[in-house]
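Lecture 7 notes: from sequence to structure.

We start with a single chain of 164 residues. Read the sequence below before looking at the structure.
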Amino acid sequence: FFLMIRRPPRSTQSRSSAASDVYKRQVLLITRKKEPFVGRYAFPGGHNDYNEEPSVACLRELREETGLEGNIIQLLTVAGSPNRDPRGHVVSVVYLVRVPEDAQPNAADDAATASFYLLSEVLQQKEKFAFDHYDILQSVSYTHLRAHETGRNLVCRLLLEKKK
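Now the structure, written as tokens:
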């Protein structure tokens, strides 16, 4: 899955603390088109293809679900709790990815919608999120995004199914 973070337009920015600036940012979320969690917020993304590098899958899924192109900045975290997805044990790799300032998402594939939301607002809506995406967003939003204060960024979360 993916999460896009961007700063507010420069014309609307005022001097503020670093913490305040982080929470004025916007995050790209989709609403899920399919079960589980139909209609809930999620990071765009999906499963790795066989023999595909996770970073390559990240950028492929970004294009497929939002029509956006980006560049990976860094690996943020890996989430792998056995009960995080009702379909089975899934491990997610989360990347910080930069996309152009003027990029606009278009929902496709498994996404019913794809849109930017104020980070400060969605962090108050835990019940609207699918899977553990809220927890991931909350854990990386301040710590990691504060370090990347320029440009528009994206967190890309990929699902790696446990082999049976």
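The beta strands are 2-6, 26-32, 41-42, 71-79, 90-99, 111-118, 152-161. Keep this in mind for problem set 3.
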